Amino acid sequence: MEGKYNLKSPAVKRLMKEAAELRDPTEHYHAQPLEDNLFEWHFSVRGPPDSDFDGGIYHGRIVLPPEYPMKPPSIILLTPNGRFEIGKKICLSISGHHPETWQPSWSIRTALIAIIGFMPTKGEGAIGSLDYTPEERKALAKKSQDFCCEMCGCSMRTALLELTPNSERQPVDPQAQQLAQQISFKAESSTSSSTSGSKETASVSQTGQQETSSTPEDSEGTAQAEQADSVSESASTPAAPTSRSLSPRQRRAQNRNQNQNQPQRRPTYPAFPAAAQQDGSHTGSAVLIVLLTLALAALVFRRIYLAQDYKFDYEL
Amino acid sequence: MADEEQQQEGMSQKELDGLNCLAYDEAIIAQQDRIQQEIATSIPLVSEQQDLAILKKEYAEDDTIYQQKIRDLQKKYSFIRKTRPDGNCFYRAFGFAYLESLLDDSKELHRFKAIAAKSKLDLVSQGFTEFTIEDFHNTFMDLIEVCDKQPSVTELLNSFNEQSVSDYLVVYLRLVTSGYLQREDEFFQYFIEGGRTVREFCQQEVEPMSKESDHIHIIALAQALSVCILVEYMDRGEGGTVNHHIFPEDGEPKVFLLYRPGHYDILYK
């Protein structure tokens, strides 16, 4: 690999060093660059003990930007786990979605420890996050051992060192927890500060919000407005108000959506980053307005039905 | 029917969440990148030395407060060197101004070399990971070595305008600042707003790139490297004169900076 890269490049120098540092698997994590690309790594992490992920070993990709370590790595999980969506960049402030809080003195190891520490925390609607039930997560943890990565040929059964009674839990846990706490804290402050930075987007979504909240006395309309608002604050609150104001049945319906409708939802995403790149926030805001309007239409539609005094059979 | 509809609603909400978050992130990042690129193409990281009189053009002629203060500043200083306003200007201005002063002061240079070499050991003993900070430290030491060979100012200026070198120096100065704040956290704790610990403050406001600097950062860096910094404060305040602060107060300043709200440039007598 040495011959292929410019060793004077700071990123190459740093990544070589990190590759050497992480060469041997530990009980808790392992990561190495792909054979033909120093800027793409594959990693395996052990699910934290005392959590729903106990016994699971999870595999994923790390994509390093050419400016690394000045810009953060992107982390993408490949093993279904019930906490992070697979195949999608994870929304931690440590990864690419909040570059302003990444610190150049952090490393790939820091990112791995953060992932481990972050697994048992609540997803709460953050991008790339899932809130599966403990049972589902436990089942996925068990299944994760069978995962074999086609790209790097890594099998989860042999990816990490076996846990021994002596080594158990010690090397990573306190550090991981501390880091995860610090990172979730940062996610809040970083997003709120960046909101003020883009007045364009903020003002557009505010108009959307006003429209939504003008729906008379609709508790869900307000919840939604709140949500639109709190998305800007942080990823850590939005789920709370909705799940409280929804009936169990509504929640079930939503859960089902979470679980089943992902493939249908996905096609809407790619349009976005592309739009944002092409014409920044203008195209982005336009799409946002259209979506908010659609949501509003759905609400009005529902109200009309409720107002008609129709009786519905709620039994499934 | 209702169920189907609810489902639809649930989906659109969930979708909105995701899209909002993604839209914000992507749009903000794209916009910040654009702004940064625009700034990057128009302003070098560290500029050539310019006559202080150019400041007058930056303010309206009838902006009496600033025009008066610029005249006051001209009594003490003759030249200015501007830095790119990218949130790292304090560190970059300090780094350049100080290393430039070392070009013809070999005694100070040797004193500083020892302090700079030791600074990494302090950080490592505080728990900073050695292999992640050593590249930054090496860049810092290399720049000091370069000064030892007494190059022309232009050579030093070229190094400072090379993004990777310049940014690595900024990272290291941020680490030194953070390390000092955390070593003296009992003292600095009282100056931190928002109920944060010194450690949290460092991780949010000191170590990440592009976070702007305040008094507390300047005090810490000046003390950590034993280099005295004088800052002239020029804002819209009354009085017609420019006030200055010296960090630490009893020192003999080696570095002279001009502060205008949100930005630092380098001043020369």
Automatic annotation (TrEMBL), chain A:
<protein>
    <submittedName>
        <fullName>Uncharacterized protein</fullName>
    </submittedName>
</protein>
UniProtKB/TrEMBL annotation, chain B:
<dbReference type="InterPro" id="IPR016615">
    <property type="entry name" value="Otubain"/>
</dbReference>
<feature type="domain" description="OTU">
    <location>
        <begin position="78"/>
        <end position="269"/>
    </location>
</feature>
<dbReference type="InterPro" id="IPR003323">
    <property type="entry name" value="OTU_dom"/>
</dbReference>
<feature type="site" description="Interacts with free ubiquitin">
    <location>
        <position position="235"/>
    </location>
</feature>
<feature type="site" description="Interacts with free ubiquitin">
    <location>
        <position position="259"/>
    </location>
</feature>
<dbReference type="InterPro" id="IPR042467">
    <property type="entry name" value="Peptidase_C65_otubain_sub2"/>
</dbReference>
<dbReference type="InterPro" id="IPR038765">
    <property type="entry name" value="Papain-like_cys_pep_sf"/>
</dbReference>
<dbReference type="Pfam" id="PF10275">
    <property type="entry name" value="Peptidase_C65"/>
</dbReference>
<keyword id="KW-0788">Thiol protease</keyword>
<keyword id="KW-0378">Hydrolase</keyword>
<protein>
    <recommendedName>
        <fullName>Ubiquitin thioesterase</fullName>
        <ecNumber>3.4.19.12</ecNumber>
    </recommendedName>
</protein>
<feature type="active site">
    <location>
        <position position="263"/>
    </location>
</feature>
<dbReference type="InterPro" id="IPR019400">
    <property type="entry name" value="Peptidase_C65_otubain"/>
</dbReference>
<dbReference type="GO" id="GO:0005634">
    <property type="term" value="C:nucleus"/>
</dbReference>
<dbReference type="GO" id="GO:0006508">
    <property type="term" value="P:proteolysis"/>
</dbReference>
<keyword id="KW-0645">Protease</keyword>
<dbReference type="GO" id="GO:0043130">
    <property type="term" value="F:ubiquitin binding"/>
</dbReference>
<feature type="site" description="Interacts with free ubiquitin">
    <location>
        <position position="264"/>
    </location>
</feature>
<feature type="active site">
    <location>
        <position position="86"/>
    </location>
</feature>
<dbReference type="GO" id="GO:0004843">
    <property type="term" value="F:cysteine-type deubiquitinase activity"/>
</dbReference>
<keyword id="KW-0833">Ubl conjugation pathway</keyword>
<dbReference type="GO" id="GO:0071108">
    <property type="term" value="P:protein K48-linked deubiquitination"/>
</dbReference>
